[in-house]
Amino acid sequence: MKILGIETSCDETAAAVVEDGVRILSNQIASQVEIHARYGGIVPEVASRQHLLAIIPIIKQAMTEAGVSWGDVDGIAVTIGPGLAGSLLVGVNVAKAMALAHRLPITGVNHLEGHIYANWLGNSSVNFPLLCLIVSGGHSDLVLMKGHGDYVVLGRTRDDAAGEAFDKAARILGLGYPGGPAIEQAAKHGTAASLKLPRAWLKGSSNFSFSGVKTALLRLVEGDKISLTANQGSRLPTGNDAAAGFQEAVIEVLVTKTIAAAKEHRVQQTLMAGGVASNGLLRRWLVDNSPIPVLVPEPLLCTDNAAMIAACGYYCFQAGKVSSLDLDVVPSLKMA
Ligand code: KG4
Ligand code: ZN
């Protein structure tokens, strides 16, 4: 079964063709990151206009790369939320038009479920029950899955999401947008031990909190306790040290709480998903410290893409979840 996936929830216009939920035939992404970097963050109005320009070419490219025509496509899967309303509307309306024109079934996919299903791409060894750590720009959730489409949210962030914290910390340190990759790069040239930042453990729960560590960093920068300019004689931690210290503070909490939840719920595997899961240190620490096997999609499949939406859509169709043509966007859609 070949599914065309369409993803426009944020600032990537993406289309992909995936066979049987696991085999990627094509995976095309038009990124707007350079446009939004000029503004230091995503401008929703600009994002939807860019989606309008890119969506038809990117669908054509995905079908060409996969070597399929409309007659070969068995269904369309499109992200309906969570995300920016104006961005989601572009993907959903184009998907509905294609479904109507080519008489294809359509299914609306939750973007967060899509992130989880990136783990099935090219991988036939996913076993239930499993725990998934979803860490993206808008979410930090620990989700227990006992089967396809069966989600129990064990914990989530009480304030900032992990990716949001990386983006805010990068802004504080003057490292630009998007913050996650910028912090990871800067941290490679710094020493984490030079700047110990607080960790919010929220003991006894699987919830997270990342606004405190970001505020602690801001106070240190405002109090001139971090040297952001190249001042050779200074004994203060540098911006690179601060990036390394911040990265470790966030990742130590994510790894410790994920391993604790995996043990408590006796899962067979732990999965990682979302843009922050492309972080090399997080991947290494979780893989190296977890007594339970850990699966991590390749970095390109952790950040937003349409192959994960097509993979998730395959399991939605298998479960008989076919949407009607009055399908609408749900910008604040939750997991389960
Ligand atoms: O999943 P994603 O691509 O989009 C959302 O659904 O939000 O995640 C984007 C988030 C951003 O906050 C970005 O800074 C973060 O993931 N991110 C990273 C890395 N790459 C992307 N965070 C830490 N380290 C990275 N290498
Ligand atoms: Zn995402």
3D structure, described in words:
It is a single chain. By secondary structure, the chain is of the alpha/beta class. It is 41% helix and 19% strand. It contains eleven helices and ten strands. It has helices at residues 33-37, 44-66, 85-102, 111-117, 162-172, 179-187, 211-222, 239-264, 280-289, 299-302, 307-318; strands spanning 2-7, 12-19, 23-31, 75-81, 106-110, 130-135, 140-147, 150-156, 269-273, 294-295. A five-stranded mixed sheet has the order 3-2-1-4-5, with helices on both faces. It has a five-stranded mixed sheet with strand order 8-7-6-9-10, with helices on both faces. The radius of gyration is 20 Å and the shape is globular. The model has no long low-confidence stretch (mean pLDDT 96).
Helix content: 40-55%
Q: Poorly predicted ranges (pLDDT <50, ≥5 residues)?
A: none
Bound molecules: 5'-O-[(R)-(carboxyoxy)(hydroxy)phosphoryl]adenosine, zinc ion
Average residue-wise pLDDT: 96
Largest sheet report: 5 strands, mixed
Please state how the strands of the largest beta sheet are arranged side by side: 3-2-1-4-5
Which geometry do the CA atoms define? globular
First-to-last CA distance: 26 Å
Give the SSE order as H and E letters.
EEEHHEHEHEEEHHHHEHEHH
Cα-based radius of gyration, to the nearest Å: 20 Å
Number of strand elements = 10
Strand content: 15-25%
Secondary-structure class: alpha/beta
Number of alpha- plus pi-helical segments: 11
